[in-house]
Amino acid sequence: MATQVLMPKMGFDMEEGAVATWLKQEGERVRAGEVIAEIETDKATVELEAPADGVLLKILVEPGRRVPVNSPIALIGEPGERVEVDEPTQPAGAEPSPAPEPGGDVGAIKVSPVARRLAEEHGIDLRHVRGTGPGGRITREDVEAAVGAAAAHLPPPPGGVKASPAARRLAREHGLDLREVPGSGPGGRVVVRDVEAALARAAAHPEPAPTPEPASAVERVPLSRMRRRIAEVMTASKAPVPHFYVTVRVDMGAAVRLRQEINAALADEGLKVSVNDFVVKAAALALRRFPNINASFAGDHILRHAHVHVGIAVALPDGLITVVVRDADRKPLGQLAREIREKVGRAREGKLQPDDLGGSTFTVSNLGMFGVEDFVAVITPPEAAILAVGAVIEESVVRDGAIAVGHTMRLTLSADHRVTDGAEAAQFLGEVRRLLEHPLLLMVS
């Protein structure tokens, strides 16, 4: 029996995704765990692994098409195995498809790949197209006839330009005026290939730079998909979640010295431990003792998570993404450091794997590398807290009644007041500080 390849859910807030690229084609043999496609979410491009051994029997979703999570996007099975293909459901927020006509074949539509792509490009529901090919298969000519019939009954288009939904979306994303794009579709309709050709012409012959505007002019910058998603999630957090903040100063002298010793000892192995690795390990161990911090608010109850999965915020050119280290409290510091470095590297290279994202129970956000001494962070739903980490700085400290120069760092916890209170948050931060000021404890816990 064929195995379905599903659109993965990477993050609690992911509702839909798109196939960016198929790395395997129909008829090719694949192995379980082998990367077969790249999936594009609102915030990242992630590698998708095959769930089983076999042959890629059928690709159900073409590159660029967005479908809800857990929708089938391909089928893997044995060579020659017959399969029935169900169309993936529409993305959340899309207009519902009209009900099929009586007697229509909805479960397994016979259609050529060219016809399917053409139908998607023009927004044609294949369940309403009569196939004239062998066995009732829908051909390109059938779809073109349906496009022409639909165009003849369309209401006056916005702005007086006839264009397919896909062409309008592509033009909007690139700021292209459809009135300047000649249409090659039925009745002069602008289709995707027309927009792509116009974009290619614009790239090959850029317009002369405009005369500089006054300094007071405003630049209009469209939101990228990642920035739009960040805005949605952060608004959903900051508005309804009652944040409160607790800050402590940590003496990092012992941690700085231990880190230098570890890195010197591991120089030949190519492994380096960062200050952030120390913080992640300390926070993970402290979460064991304070389960209300490793929790989520769920309306009329609180969910205490059995595992400690720590998210690490990673800055990218287009915004922010969070990779997750699972069971961070149980991993030795060296393994933790290696895993964080690998996941952060994949995020910056755009080669994330499904296990790199989603499921974090607590997040660490570090701006110390930018020279920031302290800040407050916004909680990422559905987590109950996030730890903001500042830079390790040299400043005056008092030791045994005398002033000395020491290495200090400030930590600020943002917490959900529905889940925990100030005293508990302070105790949690006190435990994190204790572990960092006695860093050998990180090696034996």
Provide structural commentary:
The protein is 28% helix and 22% strand. It contains 10 helices and 17 strands. It has helices at residues 113-122, 140-152, 165-173, 192-204, 225-238, 253-265, 275-289, 333-349, 422-437, 441-444, and strands at residues 3-6, 16-22, 29-30, 35-40, 45-49, 54-59, 66-68, 72-77, 243-251, 295-297, 302-304, 310-316, 319-325, 362-366, 385-389, 393-399, 402-416. The strands form 4 sheets. Strands 9, 12, 13, 14, 15, 16 and 17 form a 7-stranded mixed β-sheet that branches. A 4-stranded antiparallel β-sheet has the order 1-8-6-3, with no helix packed on it. The chain has a 4-stranded antiparallel β-sheet with strand order 5-4-2-7, with no helix packed on it. Strand 12 and strand 13 form a beta hairpin. Helix 1 runs parallel beside helix 2 (140-152), helix 3 (165-173) packs parallel to helix 4 (192-204) and helix 7 (275-289) crosses helix 9 (422-437).
Looking at the structure, the CATH topology of the largest domain is: Chloramphenicol Acetyltransferase
Query: What is the name of the CATH superfamily of the largest domain?
Result: Chloramphenicol acetyltransferase-like domain
Poorly predicted residue ranges = 90-107, 154-158
Mean pLDDT: 82
Helix content: 25-40%
- The first-to-last residue Cα distance is 47 Å
From the helix content, strand content and strand pairing, which structural class follows?
A: alpha+beta
Strand content: 15-25%
**Count of domain modules:** 3
For the record, the CATH architecture of the largest domain stands as 2-Layer Sandwich
**Total of DSSP H or I helical runs spanning 4+ residues:** 10
How many strands, which pairing sense, and closed or not: the largest β-sheet? 7 strands, mixed
Q: Using DSSP, what is the number of strands?
A: 17
Q: What does the overall shape look like?
A: elongated
Please give the CATH class of the largest domain.
Alpha Beta
Rg from alpha-carbon coordinates: 27 Å
What's the order of the H and E elements? EEEEEEEEHHHHHEHHEEEEHEEEEHH
